[in-house]
Structures are given as C-alpha cells and as structure tokens.
Automatic annotation (TrEMBL):
It holds the Pfam family Methyltransf_11. It comes from Pedobacter punctiformis. InterPro entries: Methyltransf_11, SAM-dependent_MTases_sf. It comes from the Bacteria. This is Class I SAM-dependent methyltransferase. The keyword NADP does not apply.
Length: 243
C-alpha cells in the first residue's frame, strides 16, 4: 500500500469529510454480532470512532504513524502500525471489516486473502469511498480545472478506481445490494482550500515543482465562490459490500 498522506496528516484529520449516519446504520443492519471490527487504513480514525459506538472492540490499522498520531481516540479503539495486506490478527475474529477511501491503494489479492482469513463466516466486508465533490456550477468548473488540467498527470494511477466508482475493483465476495448514499456538508471558502490541500496529487505537484498549484486557480476560485459565507457540498459515496 502507498502512503500518500503522512505529510498532511493533521490537515487530513481536520478537513476530510465524514460519512453520514445512514451509511453506518445500513452496515450495522447486516451484522448479527457486534464484537470485533477492523478498520483497514484507518487514517485519522474517523470511521473507527463511529464504529466504536457500536462494537465492543475496534482495531484500526495504518502504515502511517503520523496519521495514527492524529487519529480519534476511544477506550475501545486499538491502533496498530501495519499494512492491511499483512495483519497480525487471528483467524475469523471480525464481524465487520471496513476500508474507507483507501482500497484503491491496496494490493488486492494479498488484502482479500487477509479479509477472508480474519472475517467470521457470517461477517461483512465493506469498501467505502467518495468521489469528487459537487458544489455549484461555477465552483465545480474551477475545481475540475485544478483536478484535470493542472493535476491530471500527478494523480496516481490508482485514482482511476475512484473515478470508476469502485465498480472496477476486484470484489471476490457474495455481493449485497446497497442503497445510494452521499455526504452532505457545508463549508466556508477556507475549508474548501483546506480540503484541496489534502489531495495526494497536489502533494505530488508541490514536491515536483516546489509550488502549490492552488495559486494558479485561487483568484478564479474565490470569484466563483462569490459572497456566500457557506456553500452546500455533496460527495457521492462509493460502496461495495459483501460477505
């Protein structure tokens, strides 16, 4: 698995969007027992924190020590620095395994072997993610310019799985049909900039060119945003669930 987020771990914890309660309710409705859950590539622990409200014990793993330093804390959450493809867990102990906005970075074959080894026979696996946000027509045009025209070649190849809605990832499970969910939130302009700064391609660009590419679109983005203090933000949720 790649580590594209250690350098901006604090910003990631602050600016990344959070999943809606309806998504967790749906996943919980599929599970008989709520003892152990594993959140793979847990990052800032936002999913682990929510799951901790419902499960006896939550295990969050990540290869980024920096991310885990910024991760949400709870008495029943244990964080481990290790790759999802090679975990230290015993066989068949998890009622639920989740991976949020990260499966596209994994070595699929090795990871799925770990999922099948550690998941209980009736356990549930959920690959969760979100696509590019929608704000309004004017702002979306400028964000697309940044995403495609400026950062296009700086996105890792794995980004295609997000763009394809996770429909093209291997999924060797008995798949369960899922409702459509979206993340809905409101941001001010500074929150938008904060979020854009967490993009992995933006970090790659900065490293290569010693310049933040947001500078090229900042004025245009500000004009498109206009005088609104806050704007509604919508992220489409990507979801594959199986057992």
């Amino acid at each position: 698995m790649k580590d594209n987020f250690s350098t901006q771990a604090a910003e990631y914890a602050q600016f990344r969007p959070t999943y809606p309660p309806e998504l967790y309710d749906f996943l919980l409705s599929l599970i008989k027992e709520k003892n152990n859950v594993w959140d793979c590539a847990t990052g800032n622990g936002q999913v682990a924190r929510e799951l901790a409200k419902h499960f006896k014990q939550v295990f969050g793993t990540d290869i980024s020590e920096n991310q885990l330093k910024n991760a949400a804390k709870a008495e029943n959450i244990s964080y481990l620095i290790e790759p999802s493809e090679r975990s230290s867990f015993a066989n068949h102990i998890f009622d639920l395994i989740t991976v949020a906005q990260a499966i596209h970075w994994f070595q699929f074959d090795a990871f799925y072997l770990e999922v099948k080894r550690t998941l209980k026979p009736e356990g549930i696996f959920a690959a969760i993610g979100y696509g590019i946000m929608q704000i309004d027509q004017k702002v979306d045009v400028v964000i697309h310019k940044l995403y495609e025209d400026i950062l296009g070649k700086y996105w890792d190849e794995e980004r295609k799985y997000i763009e394809e809605g996770y429909q093209t990832i291997p999924f060797p499970f008995e798949e369960i049909a899922t409702p459509h969910f979206s993340i809905k939130t409101t941001w001010n302009f500074d929150q938008l900039i904060g979020y854009l700064n967490t993009w992995s391609a933006l970090q790659h660009y900065k490293k290569a060119n010693d310049k933040n590419p947001i500078e090229f679109v900042f004025t245009e983005l500000k004009e498109a945003w206009g005088d609104d203090a806050l704007k509604d933000i919508t992220f489409p949720i990507l979801l594959r669930v199986g057992r």
